[in-house]
Amino acid sequence: MGKDKCEICGKQLKYVTQIDMCRELACEFCGRVDLVNTFCPDNHYICSTCHAKGAIEVIEEICEKTEIKNPFFLADKIMKHPNFKIYGPEHHGLVPAVLLTALKNNKIKKTNGEEITFSDTKEAIKRASKIPGGWCGFYGSCGAGMGAGVFISIFTGATPSKDKERTFSIQITSRAFNKIADNLEHCCKRSVRISICEALDFLKEKFSIELDYKPGKCSFSKINDKCEGKKCPFF
């Protein structure tokens, strides 16, 4: 985005030069309050510390502290961070991270009865972050869809030697891939939303866990030059 636009909503930033025109605003990500002379008309603000973080760091920090229960809201919040690009492999770790965090905040336990912890989220990010960018086109395996598989693997405690758990992990990945293969150009934001949708449906069908959250409309269309527009189900 241009340097003069808000990195949260895309509106033109305002600059003031006098102290009495400055505003006290809370950072969208960490909540820190600063007196600022550059701000969005809608009062969006990102502090310098958060602005300097890397994408994986952002996922971990927000997921560790948040109380958000809706995985779509949480994913959008993280993807709006300035260091989270329109495209990139950081989206692969995002999918299992927001799903596990959402389940934890909804007080849903793993299939073995244990509580979901931040350590589970960190393990999910570590696994999914190993998936390189561009795999959808070069290897036929979208990293966001694989992230859904990582999520179910950790949720069920899957290993290569566990029959049902391993099968569940492969099944959700297959389902996500089937929907991501939509005859459109790749879009990491769309793939993240599809993967979350499929994971929530899978939880309902296989484990009777019903989380009634909907993705809503995409807020990244205006800053994505390759957006497919009305062809996308989230446009």
Give a quick rundown of the structure:
This protein has 235 residues and is mainly alpha-helical.
Q: Which stretches are poorly predicted, pLDDT < 50 over at least 5 residues?
A: none
- The structure class reads mainly alpha
Helix content: 40-55%
Count of individual domains: 2
The strands making up the biggest β-sheet line up spatially as 1-4
Task: From the structure above, extract its key features.
two-stranded antiparallel ribbon; 46% helix; 5% strand; 2 domains; 4 strands; 235 residues; single chain
Describe the protein:
This protein is mainly α. It is globular and about 65 Å long. A two-stranded antiparallel ribbon has the order 1-4. Strands 2-3 form a two-stranded antiparallel ribbon. It has nine helices and four strands; from the N terminus they run E-E-E-E-H-H-H-H-H-H-H-H-H. Helix 7 packs parallel to helix 9 and helix 8 crosses helix 9.
What is the strand and helix layout of this fold?
Elements: E1 14-15, E2 23-26, E3 33-36, E4 38-39, H1 48-51, H2 55-65, H3 71-79, H4 90-105, H5 118-128, H6 135-138, H7 143-156, H8 163-180, H9 188-207
Antiparallel strand pairs: 1-4, 2-3
Helix pairs in contact: 2-4, 2-5, 3-4, 3-9, 4-5, 4-7, 4-9, 5-7, 7-8, 7-9, 8-9
